[in-house]
Design goal:
mainly beta, Jelly Rolls
Length: 273
């Protein structure tokens, strides 16, 4: 049984990520769409894809603004979360102001040098429920005080850990780093169970495609009590997968939080066939 803190750097080169491990075969490609400063990205959310990941590199003290805006007749209740290289929640936003459902993280100051993830979802989708029945378009505008390195031509590193089928991993999340990144390889058609259990907090788990940054599954209380479980889930493609292990309400965690806190957990991915 593994009992480890975060030890694996996942490196993306030209939007392809390879874990840095000596004397190991090359891993499948991991792709997280990159953001360039002062540009607009067009995308959408749907019943099948209720959240998307984007990435950029930044330096401590850089100031960034991210704006998620519904397009055309879209009625998205946009929600943005800015995550640091070790699972820090730097900032989040639901509505820019009372009169709009668009979201904006304004003038967020990056706490460390490194790679950052932007989670674009909806107010309900952040915790796993969603009312989207047809694709809803949005734009994501990224502004920065300094030109950060883009994912399509520069390395991006996330601090996380590999999962091995059938081997439980014990870890800890903290107020400072409430999201723990995990990675594993799978093949199209594999049927897996992915469970996250804790006696310390109400677990929440996200599963992302490693080739698109799309969230393909999410679970809050699918297991016993307040534990999370994705059961009999069929992987849609061969390649690398990204897992967020966290707790309900993670996006609003702060060092002063009196409701959420540090906690131990066990995560396990099992291939059933």
């Amino acid at each position: 049984m593994h009992v480890l803190r975060r030890w694996l750097f996942v490196v993306v080169v030209g939007a392809l990520a390879l874990p840095v491990m000596a004397q190991e075969p090359a891993e499948p490609q991991l792709v997280i769409p990159g953001l360039r400063a002062n540009t607009i990205v067009e995308s959408d959310l749907s019943e099948e894809v209720s959240a998307r990941l984007f990435s950029f590199n930044g330096k401590e003290g850089d100031t960034v603004t991210l704006t998620m805006t519904a397009v055309n007749e879209s009625v998205l209740d946009s929600f943005l979360v800015l995550l640091g290289p070790a699972g820090q929640v730097v900032a989040f936003n639901d509505d820019i102001r009372f009169s709009t459902l668009n979201a904006q993280i304004a003038d967020a100051v990056l706490p460390v040098d490194g790679s950052y993830l932007v989670l674009a979802t909806t107010f309900s989708g952040r915790q796993g429920t969603s009312s989207i029945t047809e694709p809803q378009g949005f734009t994501l505008t990224f502004e920065s005080s300094a030109e950060p390195a883009a994912a399509d031509d520069t390395e991006i590193s996330l601090l996380g850990s590999n999962l091995t089928f059938g081997v439980p991993f014990n870890g800890t999340i903290t107020l400072q780093e409430p999201v723990y990144y995990f990675f594993f390889n799978g093949e199209a058609g594999d049927v897996i169970d992915l469970t996250l259990t804790s006696e310390d907090f109400d677990t929440l788990i996200y599963l992302f495609s490693g080739s698109t940054g799309e969230r393909i599954a999410v679970d809050d209380d699918g297991g016993e009590f307040f534990n999370s479980a994705l059961l009999d889930f069929e992987l849609p493609e061969t390649g690398r997968y990204i897992v967020f292990a966290t707790q309900y309400g993670y996006e609003s965690i702060s060092p002063e939080s009196d409701e959420l806190g540090d906690g131990r957990f066990t995560i396990l991915v099992t291939k059933k066939r």
